[in-house]
Specification:
Shape: elongated
Order of helices and strands: HHHHHHHHHHHH
Number of helices: 12
CATH superfamily: MetI-like
CATH class: Mainly Alpha
Strand content: under 5%
Structural class: mainly alpha
Largest sheet: none
Helix content: over 70%
Length: 258
């Protein structure tokens, strides 16, 4: 049965507010409603973006931020998966370490900056550790909750089938906890990008999208600040879409089972 033509049309409703904001932005700068020294016009931002792209500055900063983001995400995700798995699989580990973990996760991420700078300085190790810390908590918490929520009936099946500990983990526990684990990884990827921008703001200057915006602010180039802001938002959106796509593909087998 063919799909109705109306259902094939892309849903453009999500573009209404961005287009209205763009229209209001252009009108307010063109008609002098705002000071263009504080709010650059869309054309000025587009020109600054074009110059940065053609000169290679944009790609250099973007590559530095994404590399920093990936390093922190991988480090934090691995640590979160291992720690969350340990708490989820071991009642004794939860009793010993769980209360401390649940207390530490209440501390705001930026409150760790003085300690991280004392331990790692203000360079790249501190930035990557800061990003990893942002990833660690959602991944660890969701992994722990996903494993702990594994139905008791599955353990009874494992007993009947006389599965080894490794078989029980990979054939029953992890498949059952997979949705929660992927949710944690999805959140971790989002938090990693936010932490990447934060790290570039609060630690030493180095190539990156965040530092590009800082340079624009210090020289009062609002077009540079705004194009950096738009690039940061676009990258965050693409990372979120990529994580959602991967999560849906990775969990597609569950839909076939149902």
């Amino acid at each position: 049965m063919s799909t109705p033509l109306a259902s094939r049309r892309p849903d453009l409703r999500g573009w209404v507010i961005p287009l209205l904001v763009l229209l209001l932005w252009g009108l307010s700068t063109a008609l002098g409603w705002v000071d263009t020294k504080l709010v650059a016009s869309p054309l000025a931002v587009l020109e600054a973006f074009s110059q940065a792209a053609l000169s290679g500055e944009l790609w250099k900063n973007l590559a530095a931020s994404l590399t920093r983001n990936l390093n922190g995400f991988v480090l934090g995700a691995l640590a979160g998966l291992l720690f969350g798995g340990l708490l989820g699989l071991s009642r004794r580990a939860e009793q010993l370490v769980g209360p401390t973990f649940h207390a530490l996760k209440q501390i705001a991420l930026f409150a760790w900056i003085p300690l991280l700078s004392a331990w790692f300085g203000f360079g790249e190790p501190a930035k990557v550790t800061f990003i990893a810390l942002a990833v660690f908590y959602p991944v660890a918490l969701n992994s722990f909750e996903g494993i702990r929520a594994t139905r008791h009936e599955l353990y009874e099946v494992a007993e009947v089938l006389k599965l080894s500990a490794g078989q029980r983990l990979f054939k029953l526990v992890l498949p059952s906890a997979a949705p929660a684990i992927f949710t944690g990884l999805h959140l971790g990827l989002i938090y990693a990008w936010l932490a990447t921008l934060g790290a570039e703001y609060f630690f030493s200057a180095a190539p990156g999208i965040g530092n590009s915006m800082i340079d624009g602010r210090e020289h009062f180039h609002m077009d540079q600040v705004l194009y950096g802001l738009l690039v940061a938002g676009a990258v965050g959106l693409l990372l979120n879409r990529a994580a959602l796509w991967f999560e849906q593909r990775a969990l597609a087998w569950r839909d076939h089972q149902h």
